[in-house]
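Structure tokens please, single chain.
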Amino acid sequence: MPLRDPGHVLLTSFGYLHLPQDADGRPVPPPADRIEDVRDRLRDPAAARDILDLDGLNPRVQDVVWNTPGTRELLGNLAEYAGLPAGPRRIAIGCAGGKHRAAGLTELLARELRRRGHQVDVQHLHVHLPRVLTPRTAEQETSR
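Here you go.
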């Protein structure tokens, strides 16, 4: 997605489990000036059963993400970073599947940056994909 002017910011959400891998088997994230990996930083809101079938575009999921410990500080940090004079033009936010945390945080950040006067475009690479069940997640699902 081409950037139109210096005050323009492109936000991208993605899921690490959906990315292509390099020759060493490491995921290759989308191009960005800053990549924020929230897998270990923010609790997975998908644990809340009432939002399992929703995604980060839904206000209920965004509310859960907003109220997750650490989110407000991270959001403030990313918004300040985007406002630097030579600040980023592309920020990518990734979680495991790209459906809940990354997409929700990206929407919250877009709203905040627009409020601060930035021109913002958002792309969600994996929000439309089914929820990823890792062996650990599947085990937790069956034990409930």
